[in-house]
TrEMBL record:
GO terms for biological process: translation. Pfam families: Ribosomal_L17. The keyword Ribonucleoprotein applies. It comes from the Eukaryota. Signal peptide: none annotated. Belongs to the bacterial ribosomal protein bL17 family. One of its GO terms (molecular function) is structural constituent of ribosome. This is Large ribosomal subunit protein bL17m. PANTHER family: LARGE RIBOSOMAL SUBUNIT PROTEIN BL17M, RIBOSOMAL PROTEIN L17. Component of the mitochondrial ribosome (mitoribosome), a dedicated translation machinery responsible for the synthesis of mitochondrial genome-encoded proteins, including at least some of the essential transmembrane subunits of the mitochondrial respiratory chain. The mitoribosomes are attached to the mitochondrial inner membrane and translation products are cotranslationally integrated into the membrane.
Amino acid sequence: MAGGLVKYRHLSRNSSARQALLRGLVTSLVAHEHIQTTYAKAKEAQRLAEKLITYAKRDNEETRRKAQAILYTPHDLLPKLFGELRQRYTERPGGYTRVLRTEPRNTYDQAPSAILELVDGPRDARFMMTAKAVAFDKDSGKRHTELTMKNVAKVTRYRKDGKTAFDDMVASFRGLKTRGEGKKGKKAVEKDAAA
């Protein structure tokens, strides 16, 4: 019987090319903790990355071999995967990665672009965006919205020393003009600074 539901995205590649692409994306994700690619590739790489971190949390000989088969540079990245990342996600039951949609990078094909990142890492984009929103609300004297408070709870829940790190990030954003600063030209900003 032909047809049926597609269980995964084919990404316009045959099986071996698709597996090589996903292995490369996941290897870069473990190395840099943050990659930018198309949305479809990010969603497929997310599945493999979640599986890889689950292997690291189990930490036995079988899971080490499976993780070694996925990564392109296992000798460089296995210590990080089974050390730092395993410690970071011991309490988290799942959801180790996040896909954030971004504007298309390429102006020619307008492919939907996305960022794939490890959560609770040093380059966590949602953590920074939430801290920026809280700092803006405090600077302008507004009350925090329900969505902002929900995001604060999410980004600090499993992060080690999450509340203090979040407060430090908010303090670093306080006083910065983060919205509407691009409306003036360079000469107008220099003129205001001179006055």
